[in-house]
Design brief:
With 295 residues, this protein is α/β, with parallel strands linked by helices. The chain is built from 14 helices and eight strands. An eight-stranded mixed sheet has the order 3-2-1-4-5-6-7-8, with helices on both faces. The radius of gyration is 23 Å and the shape is elongated. 33% of the residues are buried.
Length: 295
């Protein structure tokens, strides 16, 4: 069983890879790094990391190998020709791609005798290793438990199960909320900007709406998630009909302002589907039916 200070290799030295390497160095690990653009390793090498000359050297340096890359294609290109070095290693892929590609990569790694964990770091690079940092993992439980102590230095580790695609799916689901919120924020800023309201004035005004969402979702006495799981959507606090009317107004205001309609029309479509199904008296959560089974 490895100790908490076993050596670690980090392949991929973008902002997230550098943050992970520095966090592990600060904890006392021997960290070996490799990047396709060697100059990107200069900073962490100056901080005490060891620079590997080749991917094969990087793999040989540690049993635990963390990959922080653009996507699985980049990983496949880097590991091409050095698959013989994978046997007995635990590869931890902490980047973004689809769950299906994650499962394919895990199968290939297993074929070369390696354990493959996938993960999603739920904080930006500057927050890696801090108290708010949370990292989802899935894949072989043996690999996770073997390196739980080391992985825990990057953030609180939350293991989701054996399916290597599950952590990636959870990561994408979080980003679904995050990216859609950012687009909504910029759309709303453009909407009021059409009337001459500066972004510097509007953004402080709208922030309470964003921060108030958790309170709104928890306003009912019943657990929202449990109701959704049970297929129950009581409209005692708000209705899809009311929300749909608001969505119509947002589309009309956006059209009059001459700004892009893609996002508000997508939201409008969710509510129109509920109304078409005769469920306008249900809560807004009823839109999940149409999202799950689009027509």
């Amino acid at each position: 069983m490895p100790t908490a200070l076993d050596p670690v290799t980090v392949i991929g030295l973008g902002p997230m890879g550098q943050a992970m390497a520095r966090t592990l160095l600060a904890a006392g690990h021997r960290v070996t790094v490799w990047n396709r653009t060697p100059s990107r390793t200069d900073g962490v090498v100056a901080d005490g990391a060891l620079r590997a000359a080749t991917p094969a050297d990087a793999l040989r340096a540690s049993e635990l190998v963390i990959l922080s890359l653009t996507d699985y294609r980049a990983m496949e290109e880097i590991l091409a020709g050095v698959e013989g070095e994978l046997a007995g290693r635990t590869l931890v892929y902490l980047s973004s791609d689809t769950p299906d590609r994650t499962r394919e990569a895990a199968d290939r790694a297993a074929g070369h005798g390696a354990r493959f964990l996938t993960g999603g770091i739920m904080v930006p690079a500057p927050m890696v290793g801090t108290d708010p940092s949370l990292v989802y993992y899935s894949g072989p439980s043996e690999g996770f438990e073997r390196h739980r102590g080391t992985l825990g230095r990057l953030g609180v580790p939350r293991y989701l199960g054996e399916d290597p695609g599950l952590a990636q799916l959870m990561y994408q689901a979080h980003l679904d909320v995050f990216l859609t919120t950012l687009s909504a924020l910029m759309h709303a800023t453009a909407l009021v900007g059409s009337a001459g309201v500066p972004a510097r004035d509007f953004l402080p005004e709208v922030m309470p709406t964003i921060t108030g969402v958790p309170g709104m979702l928890a306003a009912g006495e019943d657990d929202l998630g449990a109701l959704i799981d049970a297929g129950e959507h009581p409209g005692d606090l708000s209705t899809a009909r009311m929300m749909g009317a608001t969505a119509d107004h947002i589309v009309a205001a956006s059209e009059a302002a001459g700004i892009d309609l893609t996002l508000p029309r997508a939201v409008q479509g969710h509510y129109h589907r509920v109304l078409d199904d005769g469920r306008g008296g249900d809560n807004f959560t009823r839109i999940i039916d149409g999202i799950r089974a689009p027509r």
